[in-house]
Amino acid sequence: MESYLGLILVIALVVVLTAGGMFLLFRQSRKAPPPVKPPEAPPLPPREQAPPRGAVKEDEATTTTVPPPARTIEPPVAPEIEVPPPSAGRMVRLRARLARSQTTLGKGLLELLSRDRLDDDVWDEIEETLIGADVGIAPTQVMVEELRTRVKVLGSRTPEEVRGLLKEQLLAQIGPDMDRTLHVVKHGERPAVALVVGVNGTGKTTTTGKLARSLVGDGKHVVLGAADTFRAAAADQLQTWGDRVGAEVVRGPEGGDPASVAFDAVAKGMEVKADVVIVDTAGRLHTKTGLMDELGKVKRVIEKKATVDEVLLVLDATTGQNGMRQAQVFAEVVNITGIALTKLDGTAKGGIVISVQRELGVPVKLVGLGEGPDDLAPFDPEVFVDALLGD
Ligand SMILES: Nc1nc2c(ncn2[C@@H]2O[C@H](COP(=O)(O)OP(=O)(O)OP(=O)(O)O)[C@@H](O)[C@H]2O)c(=O)[nH]1
Ligand SMILES: [Mg+2]
Q1: For 132, which of 10, 67, 126, 180 is 20 to 30 Å away at the CA?
Q2: Ligand 1 contacts CB of residue 283 (under 6 A)
Q3: From ligand 1's centre to the CA of 83, what distance in Å?
Q4: pTM
Q5: For residue 334, what are the contacts with CB-CB under 8 A and spacing of at least 6?
Q6: Where is GTP bound in this sequence (predicted)?
Q7: Mutate to test the pocket of ligand 1, among 90, 236, 238, 371 (most ligand atoms within 8 A of CB)
Q8: Nearest ligand, CA of residue 199?
């Protein structure tokens, strides 16, 4: 009996131990495994700050920078002052842009005029090419008439003769003798003043900035006036241009009086004995008449203090006849002294140089040939025609 009891006790002990062990095991398996901590991601390399909106692109080929560009923005450094290249020889540097965009005009005409037989159909095509490139109807007729006479006299033509003929006729229409100098020479102690006008989007602010660079490159002390108070971004855009070349920018509150900003800019120019003050204006206001009234006022207010030496009308070469009509409206309000023809790199209608001068009776003084900071050149008719026709 006693041995039975012992056996039962042993069995009970075994059962209790087995059950306890299984219970522990079961609890263990129901517990979620401890979360595995992912390895720490390596810290991201410090990123360079994105350039501000409307900031200009670097043209490394032509711009020297002092001091060498900083890689990061920390710690904050003073804005770099660039040393832009001078204005001379710019059009030669940019002629490839013209040659590329004006192939229809130049090469097209060369090909047509080189044909053995120049019948009426060919002359019609020549006429269409000129009109299609915005040369304008009257100048086209003069050119075609001249070319017909000259070709008759010549008889058979060598490629050199055809090229010479075209060059001569295009140059005659462009007016190689027009005075294209920018009036930016100071009057004793008083700075010269240039006013930049035009409809919105034509490239006024960009041209003002590029011109400031180019004048700084020519050794002039420039002050800029941000008289486009229509939107705050306009003054910021000009400020970016000014900062890059160390040109002071005079600005006013958004929605403020543009004439008063222009006046202050001229006053600042006089105070710091600048050579040139360039005033950028708005391309739009709430009403069209308002804009024209405002421009007239800006000019009159400046004239209380200084002479407005140059009124540059900025015209977008891609807008053709439409742009020309707008130009007329400006010409009636302010006495335009020169045209800055922008975006010539983006249109095949280079003939607008001829028609706009004819319509407004004012020379093209500057041409915009790209969005780069140094893509503005003093207009040189000879280089222009050579670029159209190729060497
Ligand atoms: N391809 C090319 N683009 C140009 C040229 N000139 C200006 N632009 C571009 O035209 C656009 C408009 O230029 P802005 O200078 O802001 O024009 P704006 O006349 O001041 O415009 P608003 O202030 O709105 O009246 C910008 O994207 C410029 O980069 C040029 O010669 N060639
Ligand atoms: Mg602008």
Answers
A1: 180
A2: yes
A3: 22
A4: 0.80
A5: 195, 197, 295, 296, 299, 311
A6: 198-205, 280-284, 342-345
A7: 371
A8: 1
Q: How far is the CA of 365 from the centre of ligand 1 (A)?
A: 17
Q: In what order do the strands lie in the sheet with 192-197?
A: 248-251, 222-226, 276-280, 192-197, 308-316, 338-342, 364-368, 376-378
Q: Is the dihedral of CA 198, 322, 354, 348 positive or negative?
A: positive
208 C-beta closer than 6 A to ligand 1: no
Instruction: Name the phi and psi angles at 257, rounded to 5.
Output: -80, 115
Q: Is 31 annotated as a binding residue?
A: no
Cβ atoms < 10 Å from Cβ of 174: 21
- Most informative mutation of 94, 200, 206, 342 for ligand 1 (most atoms within 8 A of CB): 206
**How many angstroms separate the CA atoms of 21 and 189, rounded?**
104
Q: Ligand 1: which atom is nearest the Cα of residue 208?
A: 15
202 among annotated binding-site residues? yes
Q: Two tokens at 305?
A: 């203090």
CB 204 near ligand 1, within 6 Å: yes
Q: Which protein residue's CA is at the shortest distance from atom 22 of ligand 1?
A: 200
The per-residue pLDDT string of the chain (391 residues; one tens digit each, 9 = 90 and over) reads 455 555 555 455 444 445 444 444 444 444 444 444 443 433 433 433 433 333 333 333 344 445 555 566 666 666 678 889 988 889 998 988 888 888 878 989 999 999 988 999 999 999 999 999 999 999 999 999 999 999 999 888 898 999 999 999 999 999 999 999 999 999 998 999 999 999 889 999 999 999 999 999 999 999 999 999 988 899 999 999 999 999 999 999 988 999 999 999 999 999 999 999 999 999 875 455 688 889 999 999 999 999 999 999 999 999 988 888 888 888 888 999 999 999 999 888 999 999 999 999 999 999 999 999 999 999 999 999 999 888 7
